[in-house]
Structure prediction request, 124 residues.
Amino acid sequence: QVQLVESGGGLVQAGGSLRLSCAASGRTFSTGAMGWFRQAPGKEREFVAACSVSGGMTAYADTVKGRFTISRDNAKNTVFLHMNSLKPEDTAVYYCAAKRTVVPGPSRYEYDYWGQGTQVTVSS
Prediction:
C-alpha cells in the first residue's frame, strides 16, 4: 500500500503563492500516476491536477491551468503542487491521491490511495 501525507497548506493573500507537498511511503509510489484534488465546503471533491510516473505527462483542471504546476520527485517519494496567482475560490482542503496505474486522470474513482488533506485558505 501507499501512505500519503500532505503539507504546505495555510493562509495566503489573493495573488500569492503556496507549494503543497505530498510525502509518500510504500513500494508502489513510483509505479503509478499521482493527482491532486480539492473540496470546498458544500461542494463535491474536484480534480485539480495529475501527472504520470515520470512527470512528463500532466493534466490540469481548466480552473487552475496556467496557475498551478504539478511535479514529482520519485527519489524523494514526493509530489508537489505549485500554486501561483491564488484566488479566493481556490480555498479548499487539498488532497493528494495515488493510482496503481500509470495514466493521469481527472476522476477521483480512478485513485486508490488518499491523504488526509491540507487546508488552503486564500483571503481577499
Remarks:
- The chain has a mean pLDDT of 93.
- The radius of gyration is 13 Å.
- The chain is about 0% helix and 50% strand.
- The longest strand covers residues 18-25.
